[in-house]
Amino acid sequence: MAAALMCVLTLATVVARAADALPSWNDGAAKQSIVDFVKRVATKGGKDFVPPAERITVFDNDGTLWAEQPIYFQLAFALDRVKALAPQHPEWKEKEPFVSLLKGDVKGALVGGEKALLEIVMATHAGMTTEEFEKIVKDWLATAKHPKFKRSYTELAYKPMLELLAYLRGNGFKPFIVSGGGVEFMRAFAEKVYGIPSEQVIGSAGKQKFEMRDGKPVLVKLAEIDFIDDKEGKPIGIQKFIGRRPILAFGNSDGDLQMLQWTAAGNGVRFMGLVHHTDADREWAYDRDSSIGGLNKALDEAKAKYWTVVDMKKDWKRVFSFK
Amino acid sequence: MAAALMCVLTLATVVARAADALPSWNDGAAKQSIVDFVKRVATKGGKDFVPPAERITVFDNDGTLWAEQPIYFQLAFALDRVKALAPQHPEWKEKEPFVSLLKGDVKGALVGGEKALLEIVMATHAGMTTEEFEKIVKDWLATAKHPKFKRSYTELAYKPMLELLAYLRGNGFKPFIVSGGGVEFMRAFAEKVYGIPSEQVIGSAGKQKFEMRDGKPVLVKLAEIDFIDDKEGKPIGIQKFIGRRPILAFGNSDGDLQMLQWTAAGNGVRFMGLVHHTDADREWAYDRDSSIGGLNKALDEAKAKYWTVVDMKKDWKRVFSFK
Q1: Are B270 and B232 in contact (CB under 8 A)?
Q2: Which residues on neighbouring strands pair with residue B204, listed in sequence order?
Q3: What is the largest CA-CA distance in chain B?
Q4: pLDDT at A72
Q5: Residue A241: which of B199, B232, B244 has the nearest Cβ?
Q6: Are B218 and B262 in contact, with CB atoms under 8 Å apart?
Q7: What is the pLDDT of residue B17?
Q8: What is the rounded CA–CA span in Å between residue A39 and residue A299?
Q9: Mean pLDDT along residues B27-56
Q10: Using a CB-CB distance cutoff of 8 angstroms, which residues of chain A are in contact with residue B188?
C-alpha cells in the first residue's frame, strides 16, 4: 500500500516536471517541437527511441546560450586585458591594433580585420599557464559588467536555454557546447553557469607546450592557433571530440550552419534549432546584415527544411534570469 | 519493516560488490593500493573525498588495457589493409615501405623508421570518410586473429583492467582512454570492449575535411597529422579534451610518463599506476629495452615516487577473459 502510494506520487512528480520544464517558453510551435522531439526520442519502446548514450546534443554558445552584443564577451575580456597589460608593453603605444584600443577606439582597432583580432587574442590568451589563464578569466568574470545591462556577463545566459539544458539532462541527454569561442575561456564558467562540465566544452584553441618549472609540470599557452571551431570546423570538432553525430543541434548564426547540416544528415529523428534575435527591447534584434552573429544562409535553410526557428520576441516569456 | 529489510539487503549487496570487484587481481600491495584509493576518494565526509564530477581517470590503451605484442594491433590492421589495397596501387610494387610489406617482411619495411610508419598509416587511414573508416576497422576486428593466441584482437583486453574500469565506474569515476593509438581506430571498439564511450577516447588523429557529396555532408580523413597523443602530447591531450586534471592515471611505458607526472602534480590524493609486463608464459615479459612499450625512465620514477607498479605475473590471477 505504502509502496504503491509512493509510486503514484513519484509518477505524478515526473509528469508535473515535464509539464513545466520550460516555464520561460511561451506555448507555441517552437516549444512544442522541443517537447515532441524529447518525448519521441526518450520514450522506451517507441519507434524513435534513442538509447541514452546516443542522446548527444550540441549548442553554440555566443548568441545561443548567452548574449553576444554589442561585442563578443570574450573580446570584451581581451580588451580589458590589453588595458591591464599595457604598462608591461610600452611598445603597444606605437603599434596597431593596440594604439587604437588603448584610446578606447574598438572600431578603429578592428579595422585590421582578422589579423588585428588575432593579435589581440594572442597578446591576451598566450604566455601563461593554463591554470593562470583560468584564474584570470574567473577574476574578470567576477568583476566585469556588461555595458548595457550593468550585470555580470554570466547573468546574460538565456533563461529559456538554461531550462532547455536542464530539461534535456533530466531526460538522459548529454549537452555539449560547440562554439567558435575559446575553449579555455568558456570552461572557466560553463559548469557553474550552464551545468556543462569542462569535458563537454568544445571550442577554438591555441597550441600548448608541456614543460617542467621547478620540477613541476605545467602547460603553457602558446601564441599559435591549434583549431578554429567555426563553420566547417564545427562538425570537425564534433567528430574530433565526441566521435559520434549529435541528434540535436542549436545555433544562432551562419557559423552554425555546417553543424546543423551534419546533425540533420544522420539517421532517425533529429532536431535542428536556431535562436533568432528579434527582440530589440529585451535583448537585440539582428540577423542577415549583422557583423556579429550574422544569420542569413542558415535562416533560409532552416525555413526551407522546417528546422525550428525560435523567435525570441514571440517564443520567450523571459530572456534573462534577472528581471 | 519491509523497507528497512530492503535497505539492509541493498547495503549488503554494495559491500559484497566492493569485496570482489577485482576477482582477477591477487591480494597484494597493488590491489590494496587501488581499493584504498577508491575508498578514500569516494567516501563522503572523508578528508580525501572528491566530488564525482572531478573523479576523472585516464588510461593508456596499448599494453595497459589490451596487449601490444608482437606489434601494435593498429599496425597489424594497417599491414592487412596494405595487402587488401595493393591491387589498387601497382606503384607499391616498387616503393618502400610497401615492397617489403607485401613480401611479408615487416622488419624490412620498418627500417625506414618513423617516416616509413607514417607512410603506412597514411596509406591506410586516409582518403575515406570517417564512417567508411569505422566500418573498415569493425570488419577487420570481426575477422582478424592475433598470431600468437589465435583469438580476436579485442579478446586480448586484460580481464583485471576490465574489472578495474567497472569498479571505478561503479564508484562514480569517469574513465578516459588517453593513448598514442589512433582515436578513430580505438573508438570502433572502445565502447563494446571497455564500456568507454567515444567521447571519452582521446588519441592521435589526422586532419579532416568537411565536404558535401550529393548534397550530404561528409568528413573526409586527410593524409596529414593533426595531433600525436604521446609523451608530452598526453597531458596536452588531457587539457584539450577534458580540461581538468585526472586523479588517477594508468600506463605501461615511457610514453605515459608525462601523463603520470601531470596527474601526480595535482592537489589531494592521486593514484599513478604502471602495468609491468613480467609474464612471458601468459603474456610477454619486456620493459627497458623493448622497442614496443619500452618502460625505463617511468619505471625508475615510479619506484622513486612510490607509484603503484603492477607486476603482471604476481598481481594478476588471470590475464585474459578466455582460459
Answers
A1: no
A2: B182
A3: 81
A4: 95
A5: B199
A6: no
A7: 52
A8: 26
A9: 97
A10: none
Binary contact (A217, B258; C-beta < 8 A): yes
Per the CB < 8 A criterion, the answer to whether A285 and A69 are in contact is no
The answer to whether A275 and A310 have CB atoms below 8 angstroms apart is yes
In whole angstroms, what is the distance from residue B284 CA to residue B253 CA?
14
Mean local confidence (pLDDT), A210-228:
96
Residue A89, C-beta contacts closer than 8 angstroms, at least 6 positions apart: A98, A123
**What is the torsional sign of CA A38, A22, A264, A202?**
negative
Q: Scanning every residue of chain A, which has its alpha carbon at the shortest distance from the alpha carbon of B246?
A: A199
- Amino acid making up residue B302: A
What is the per-residue pLDDT across A180-198, written as a single tens digit (0 to 9) for each?
999 999 999 999 999 999 9
The mean pLDDT value for A287-315 works out to 97
Separation of first and last alpha carbons in chain A: 46
For residue A58, the cross-strand partners are A176, A249
Stretch B172-184: mean pLDDT: 98
Q: How far apart are CA B245 and CA B39, in angstroms?
A: 20
Radius of gyration of chain B (CA): 21
Q: Please enumerate in sequence order all residues whose Cβ is within 8 A of that of B22, keeping only pairs 6 or more positions apart, or say none.
A: B31, B34, B35, B160, B163, B164, B167
* Chain A residues whose beta carbon lies within 8 Å of the beta carbon of residue B262: 210, 217
List, for residues A99-136, the tens digit of each pLDDT value.
Answer: 999 998 988 998 888 899 889 999 999 999 999 999 99
A220, β-bridge pairs:
A129, A209
Type of residue found at B279: D
Comparing alpha-carbon positions, the chain A residue that sits nearest to B209 is A236
Distance CA B146, CA B268 (A): 42
Q: Which of A226, A239, A265 sits opposite B130 (nearest CB)?
A: A239
Of A209, A248, A278, the closest CA to residue B236 belongs to A209
For A208, the closest chain B residue by CA position comes to B236
* Per-residue cell: A261: 547540416
Q: For residue range B86-95, what is the model confidence (pLDDT) as tens digits?
A: 999 999 999 9
**Alpha-carbon span B38 to B57, nearest angstrom:** 11
Distance CA A165, CA A174 (A): 9
pTM of the model: 0.93
Contacts by B289-294, CB closer than 8 A, 24 or more apart: B292/B63, B292/B68, B292/B69, B292/B70, B292/B71, B292/B72, B293/B62, B293/B63, B293/B68, B293/B69, B293/B252, B293/B253, B294/B253, B294/B254
The label of the residue with cell 517558453 reads: A25
Q: What is the DSSP letter of B26?
A: P
- Which among B123, B130, B33 is positioned nearest to B77, based on CA atoms? B123
User: How is residue A56 annotated by DSSP?
Assistant: E
User: Is it the case that residue B244 has pLDDT exceeding 80?
Assistant: yes
Whether residue B198 and residue A261 make contact (CB cut-off 8 A), yes or no, is no
Q: Is A224 on the interface with B (CB under 8 A)?
A: no
